[in-house]
Amino acid sequence: MKYELLDYQKYQDRIAEILEDNNNVFQVIKQAPLVYTRCDFPVDHYTIGYGPKHLVVMGGTHGNEIIGVDFVTQLMGSIAKGEGEFAHFNPEEFTIDFIPLQNPEGFVISTTAIKKVIPDGTSDEEVEKICHDYWANFRQDDIDARANPQDRGIKRHQAMFASVTPDDLSDEDYELKESVKKLWETYHYPAGAMINWSANGSGVDLNANTPENPKNETMFAQSGVLTYAGSRYNNLPTNVPSPIGCPRKDADHFEFEPENLALLTMLTNLHESESFVGLFTYHGTGGVVYHRPYKFVDSENYERNNEINMEVANCYGDACGYATGGRSYLDEPSITGCGDLMRSYLPVVLLVELSVMGGNPIAPYGDRNTYAKTINSNKEAFAKALSLISVRSEEIAKNYISSSR
Ligand SMILES: [Zn+2]
Prior knowledge:
Layout: H1 8-20, E1 28-30, E2 46-48, E3 53-59, H2 66-81, E4 94-99, H3 104-117, H4 124-147, H5 156-159, H6 174-187, H7 220-223, H8 258-272, E5 276-285, E6 288-290, H9 299-320, E7 323-325, H10 338-345, E8 349-355, H11 368-397, H12 400-403
Parallel strand pairs: 3-4, 3-5, 5-8, 6-7
Antiparallel strand pairs: 1-2, 2-4, 6-8
Helix pairs in contact: 1-2, 9-11
The structure holds zinc ion.
């Protein structure tokens, strides 16, 4: 267990440490990157095991959800070392595909903000205190936003990072820095909004980046009216490129971002060869397992996916004490995201909201006991879900579309 606020360098150091660990009982293999982002960051891909059943484990879709990246890398290290239940991991049965950081650009932006305010060398006690203050401010921002939803002034949690600007990004990441500077000059985000950077460096939110998202119909260029994110984020626009919520780069046509297109291609190829047995995608806060697909063209797969997703999600949720279900497009059409899209096509696609301490990116680090419990209980839940997937894998891997051809 490592209590550490990751930045991009620390993330790379941690991976290098895992790859070289002499205590590994299962080898971790570095694969070719899934894709390179527009600003030329690799979307890293590692595997453990060489079996025919591929389970994809992903973190960092939202740039400011660092605990997802933290958890996926720690899980990778634990499986490699055969810790606890993972002593029984069968590399001849499974290949676990790790994509620890789907959105490196957003991660670099938000962690640059963190590092300016919490520099290297800050003691764990001080880190915990700042993160706890952030958590409290974030809660208050939600309360204030409920009372005054039209107040789009700077939020308390943003004020803690108000000194951070795109100029703080490294000159070594020139393209990213120029992209964010240009977005900032065009759209005038509130001070401190670098801490809210869920999107990639083009200002597109990878979860919102799906053709079914109703926001595609209300882009500012068509409507002339800015829309904003909810509650504590109600000063961040969502229908222009933005730190959060924008579904596409160009107002006049939809396009998947490279980070999503590469993932969807990978999943489709695995499914077509009947070797896909699941996708667990780890997000930041909530303590919830989202599993509900929404009805989308192929109703046969919908029923199958719905049933198996629920079974695996309940197994996972029981093991770590998380609620399952979560809202989906069925409940609230305005929240549909890329997770919904994948769940509608494929079985065992779960989205886990990790920490019960709300406030990305740093509130999950505001209490070291809660943090440790989050990491450990999710490792246990993962191991239990993996056992269930092993039992149910024949049905999960079945590709009804290709077998009916
Ligand atoms: Zn998220």
